[in-house]
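[09:14] KT: can someone run the structure on this one? pasting the chain below
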Amino acid sequence: MSAAGLFPSLLGERWEALPEPVRRAHAGSGAVALEGRARAFGSPGLAALARGLLGLPSPGPHETFVAITPEPDRERWRRRFGSREFASTLVRAEDDSTTFEETIGLLTFRCALAPRRDGFTFVFRSWRLGPVPLPRAWAPRIRSRTYARDDGLYRFRVLVAHPWVGVIFGYAGRLS
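[09:31] RB: done, structure tokens below
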């Protein structure tokens, strides 16, 4: 990862056009701690079981804390929703300088960033279990957006759903 941080290096010249709250959170120049509120949601049954196994939040409103810690070759993310906490690691993909990989437990998701006027979205590319590539047809549908409005707050929306089990997890909120 470059000295500029993972997200600035992935977005290149488009980085400077992003709103200040988004750039402040994702610059990668130092550790960031964000606090606020979020609402989590998800389906019952297998989706609830998956949330429980991964430490993901149960549906409802939560006090929320996000810590992003850059390291020379990766970013470590720790998220806390109420009393539930989960972590992931983001690294630049070794074979594609336009994508990154986020690992949660044994699952790794490869994504690209799509800049928007108010922030960016994660664009799902592929996934794997450990070193084993998984069929894209089996993948959950992922929507993830980071953005800011005129109030200066960092905002986010994440939805991970699967046609067979429903909404595995989702959350949306504001942090400062």
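[09:33] KT: thanks! The chain has one domain: 6-175.
[09:34] RB: yep, looked fine to me
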